[in-house]
């Protein structure tokens, strides 16, 4: 499956953005989906994930209550709604996918930059 992330940009602290991840090539509903981010000078970190049929959702503690992950399998698209953004949310955000039985994400999008100004 190929993934294309979009929706990043510059936003003031306290603002909102919605990232999209469009899948192609394979049946999107066969894959769990996740969002990860990498801030300058830091390692990539997990942000949120959702199982293939949109059931179980998981969030990093740093984004709980502010970010919401969702997906529309009919549209082959996943989303990350980000509210109450903070400067420390500044990073390149990546969407990723994996077959449910795999432990690691093995399909990655190209990343979209989110910059939160104070």
Total helix count? 0
> What is the alpha-carbon Rg in Å?
13 Å
Distance separating the two termini: 37 Å
- Approximately how much beta-strand content do the residues carry? over 45%
Q: Count the E strands.
A: 11
Task: Give the low-confidence spans.
Answer: none
> Share of helix among residues?
under 10%
Secondary-structure-derived class: mainly beta
Element order: H for helix, E for strand: EEEEEEEEEEE
Residue-averaged pLDDT: 96
Largest sheet: 7 strands, mixed
Q: What's the shape?
A: globular
SSE topology:
Blueprint: E1 2-6, E2 9-12, E3 17-24, E4 31-38, E5 45-50, E6 57-59, E7 67-72, E8 77-82, E9 91-99, E10 107-108, E11 112-117
Parallel strand pairs: 2-11
Antiparallel strand pairs: 1-3, 3-8, 4-5, 4-9, 5-6, 7-8, 9-10, 9-11
